[in-house]
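Retry 2 of 3 after timeout on previous attempt. Resubmitting structure tokens to design endpoint.
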């Protein structure tokens, strides 16, 4: 027995029982779990794994490689019930043979530092029980007082506590609930004070007093400081699931990226384990917000490579760029950007055969002498078929890791139909091209970005929100394309978290750089020109082209990669100031009674009627699209074509109606 009379433990003891509680709705454990267990095993004599739910075969096999003691139970009573079941099954006599009993779970990534640091330190502390971190206690906004307590994701009980009648009675009388909040208030919150009142001593590895005056929950609100300054070995998984609007209550939403970057740059923990877990269970729109997947790259200088701590410098990706040219009257602008393709990148042009000679001549006139391969296209499917049909063999040739794609853009006819200026479409085209091929240095920085980030699958400019594009992309960028996108994903057997109430993080405008492996399923579909509508029947929305445009971010996710937005440093200045101006004006339009002391409180002050208006507009849009698909789309082309062009106008009209109704509601509330 290693517990001394003063309650400390003999250095180096491994006489511990660890109870590891696991839950996943699909019964699957990511690799981060096996890394956690592998690091824990040298410090325990026995491991019991208890799963709240059935396991898949791969996870069951992985767990049994660590221990024969694997329990699969019905998910009743959450972690508290799982711990109780194991404690009572093992029995108090057996439990008292261990110096410590650990109750831990799968809610953390780590350890980012060796467990030996934790156990060596805690062995010296004369306590009956301890935890990794403690909630410092505070008074909630509803006047509920939360006392100081150890957080239950990592509880360690020493023999002096485990052998006590009070400990036996506590667990034997425990009645766990399926309600998380109830369980927390029945077990985690009162546990520490309950046993302290009985004369038992406790401590936390991380000194909560260090963060006093900042936050009662440092691992949530100050995770980077907790890991960096207190050498906490864990990052809580829940911080990657907190909506940024909620995070703005107490932080500037910088905390998740801060701790991720610190672990990436200063520890040996493989952050790819985090990405693997996030990409399996999160909507990519949420990931973009939480992980700030907006890259800003220099236009006139080259970024150095940034490999992860402990890993060799990455290999430079092999690259190609495919440029689709249709409008010969735009050749001067097109070749201005074409000239920015890096020398290391193979260049391709897709175009109609009768335009090749004129484009060749223009290349010479612009002093572009690099080798260029021309790929002939049919005039059906526009830029989307140029990539996914005409260029398919190039993409799948095995010669390239990353491919860029762009096309000339002339959408003035769309804005003219809505009675708008052509400058609105011109600005969209400039936003696409400046943030795809803004300069030679910028394009090379994009390639460095892919080399450094093995999980990066696609980068594209952020969607437009100026002028007539505002109701098309804000608050959502689906338009009438959600159902078509879902159907396309199902054709590829892709099932990822997706919602019509979350943005797509896809390449709106179809100018982007992508990793070939990330979008491979789209190319494996082997689409043909006949999959696309003839040129005369192509509408502004609702086609397979628009479904592909919105699907590519989810396709990347299905292959284990994330999509992101990318901008030049110069364009980011415009974006930042414009968004701040928009925020000022939107908040300024609210009467004082509808403004809260924080962004989240301001949203909460908006009446339920406001939310119902937005949701009603979305339901109405979906209904119109369903009617169109089952009636208008089935009519002969000479009838459906002119009607189909009105679909986007209806969608925009419904959104404008929603805004008008909101204004009336606000005016009514001010009376």
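Retry 2 succeeded. Sequence:
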């Amino acid at each position: 027995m290693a517990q001394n009379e003063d309650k400390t433990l003999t250095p180096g003891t491994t006489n511990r029982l660890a109870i590891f509680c696991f839950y996943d709705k699909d019964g699957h454990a990511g690799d981060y779990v096996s890394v956690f267990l592998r690091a824990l095993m040298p410090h325990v004599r026995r491991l019991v794994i208890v799963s709240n739910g059935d396991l898949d075969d791969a996870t069951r096999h992985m767990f049994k490689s660590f221990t024969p003691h694997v329990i699969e139970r019905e998910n009743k009573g959450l972690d508290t019930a799982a711990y109780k079941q194991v404690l009572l099954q093992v029995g108090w006599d057996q439990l008292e043979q261990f110096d410590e009993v650990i109750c831990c779970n799968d809610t953390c990534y780590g350890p980012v530092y060796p467990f030996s640091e934790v156990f060596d330190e805690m062995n010296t502390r004369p306590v009956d029980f301890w935890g990794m971190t403690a909630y410092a206690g505070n008074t909630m906004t509803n006047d509920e007082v939360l006392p100081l307590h150890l957080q239950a994701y990592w509880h360690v009980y020493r023999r002096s506590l485990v052998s006590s009648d009070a400990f036996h009675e506590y667990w034997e009388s425990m009645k766990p609930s399926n309600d998380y909040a109830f369980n927390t208030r029945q077990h985690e919150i009162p546990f520490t004070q309950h046993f302290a009142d009985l004369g038992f001593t406790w401590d936390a590895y991380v000194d909560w007093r260090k963060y006093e005056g900042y936050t009662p929950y440092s691992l949530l609100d100050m995770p980077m400081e907790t890991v960096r300054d207190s050498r906490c070995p864990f990052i809580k998984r829940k911080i990657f699931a907190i909506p940024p609007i909620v995070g703005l209550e107490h932080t500037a939403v910088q905390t998740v990226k801060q701790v991720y970057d610190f672990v990436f740059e200063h520890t040996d923990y493989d952050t790819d384990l985090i990405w693997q877990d996030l990409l399996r269970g999160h909507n990519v729109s949420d990931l973009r917000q939480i992980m700030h997947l907006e890259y800003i790259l220099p236009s006139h200088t080259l970024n150095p490579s940034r490999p992860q701590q402990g890993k060799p410098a990455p290999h430079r990706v092999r690259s190609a760029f495919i440029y689709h040219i249709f409008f010969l009257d735009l050749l001067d602008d097109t070749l201005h950007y074409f000239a920015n393709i890096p020398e290391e990148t193979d260049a391709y042009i897709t175009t109609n055969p009768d335009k090749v000679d004129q484009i060749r001549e223009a290349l010479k006139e612009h002093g572009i002498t690099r080798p260029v391969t021309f790929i002939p296209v049919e005039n059906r499917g526009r830029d989307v078929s140029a990539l996914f049909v005409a260029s398919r063999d190039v993409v799948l040739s095995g010669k390239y890791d990353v491919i860029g794609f762009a096309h000339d853009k002339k959408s003035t006819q769309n804005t003219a139909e809505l009675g708008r200026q052509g400058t609105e479409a011109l600005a969209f085209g400039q936003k696409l091209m400046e943030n795809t091929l803004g300069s030679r240095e910028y394009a090379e920085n994009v390639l460095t970005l892919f080399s450094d980030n093995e999980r990066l699958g696609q980068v594209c400019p952020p969607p437009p929100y100026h002028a007539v594009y505002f109701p098309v992309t804000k608050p959502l960028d689906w338009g009438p394309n959600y159902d078509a996108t879902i159907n396309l994903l199902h054709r590829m057997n892709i099932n990822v978290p997706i919602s019509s109430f979350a943005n797509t993080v896809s390449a709106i405008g179809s100018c982007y750089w992508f990793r070939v492996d990330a979008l491979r399923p789209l190319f494996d579909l082997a689409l043909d020109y006949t999959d696309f509508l003839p040129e005369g029947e192509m509408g502004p929305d609702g086609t397979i082209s628009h479904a592909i445009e919105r699907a590519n971010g989810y396709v990347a996710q299905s292959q284990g990669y994330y999509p992101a937005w990318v901008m030049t440093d110069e364009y980011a200045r415009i974006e930042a100031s414009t968004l701040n101006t928009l925020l000022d004006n939107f908040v300024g339009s609210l009467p004082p009674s509808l403004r809260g002391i924080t962004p989240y409180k301001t949203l909460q002050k908006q009446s339920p009627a406001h939310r119902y208006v937005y949701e009603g507009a979305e339901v109405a849009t979906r209904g119109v699209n369903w009617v169109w698909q089952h009636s208008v789309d089935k009519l002969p082309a000479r009838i459906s074509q002119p009607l189909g062009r009105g679909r986007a106008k209806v969608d925009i009209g419904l959104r404008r109606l929603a805004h008008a109704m909101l204004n009336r509601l606000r005016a009514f509330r001010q009376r």
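Attempt log closed. The longest strand covers residues 16-22.
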